[in-house]
Amino acid sequence: MATNVKDKDAYLRLNFLYQAAHCVLATNPENVELARFYCHTEKNISKRLVLRQDPSVKRTICKKCCSLLVPGVTATVRQRKCRQRQRKTVVRCLSCGKTKQFLNNPSYVLWGDRPESQPQYPQSQSKQVATQKPPVNSKTAR
Amino acid sequence: MALAYIATKEHSPQESKQAKAFIDSFLKRSLHNLQEEEIQRHTDYKAVVLEHKYNGKKTQKKKKSKGLSAKQKREMKLFHLKPEQQRSVFLPLNELWKQYIRDLCNGLSPESNPQMIQSKLLKADFHGAIVTVTKSKCPSYVGTTGIILQETKHVFRIVTQHDRLKVIPKRNSVFTVEIDGFITHVYGSKFQLKSSERSAKKFKLKGTIDL
Ligand SMILES: [Zn+2]
What we know:
The structure holds two protein chains of two kinds.
Chain A: H1 8-27, H2 32-48, H3 55-58, E1 75-83, E2 86-93, E3 99-103, H4 123-131
Antiparallel strand pairs in A: 1-2, 2-3
Helix pairs in contact in A: 1-2
Chain B: E1 3-5, H1 13-30, H2 36-43, E2 47-49, H3 70-76, H4 91-104, H5 114-122, E3 130-136, E4 145-151, E5 155-160, E6 165-169, E7 173-179, E8 182-187, H6 195-198
Antiparallel strand pairs in B: 1-2, 3-4, 3-7, 4-5, 5-6, 7-8
Keywords (chain B): Nucleus, Phosphoprotein, tRNA processing
GO molecular function, one term (chain B): ribonuclease P RNA binding
Organism (chain B): Erpetoichthys calabaricus (Rope fish)
């Protein structure tokens, strides 16, 4: 099934780079630069080949300096108040200071998971579309 | 700038009388808690600006750019590796890379097509691979072995067995990569690209290969 994905090699490479960044940071937390370099190349490849990054990957890479955001190692994660009865998660990159904010909204559904994001095809093609969904860049289980 | 004077005592006599009567009654109705003298003071000879005020230069908001410029990146030393690196730290990276290559080639076995593997390796990532310099125009590079940490446009940064970071230019060298018995020669002069650009580029199959 996975063999007929179009840019399989590129997806594999992206996956490898992301995992390598995690691997390098896990073995030596001092080595932020190398992890950043891997994330930077990953970002560039996906930019050049126009491959969509999964939100779970995108949310762990700093937009400004491309470093991998691992809570406690390269980033701080805080809960902040923003409105009444609303909290947000603020992730701050420790090397450049850029922040990311996420509203704590349990009912939020990612655009890719919503039914209207899938293009509407006649029924005969709909099965193919489901199988051609690009593989999600998965984190290593560590 | 347009100025308008509320002048109740000038103008032609008939009009001004009518206007005065109208204004007086209007002011009495709207400002009933003020006394007449005060009302007079309010209405006499006052300049009223009818157009909006011009506040000098408009403060232009600077466009906030999210990214960093190349100069800033260089100054912050974002990708600058420290010279002391331990080789043992990167052994897991090497394991990861081997798995990745096996995945890429659908499992390396003796009967798989070498050309297919070559074409896949061309676009693969080499971070984490163990390479050896086999040929080089500079003889002191020959024989150095290490794990690739960083691949830039012109240079490989590798960690040698003696825990030292070495910078080896790609030009004029031939590198050897070995995975599961497959030995691949990489001609550095043809490889002078950013590692991120290589996956998008189309390589020409034939060409003279020189050092
Ligand atoms: Zn950052």
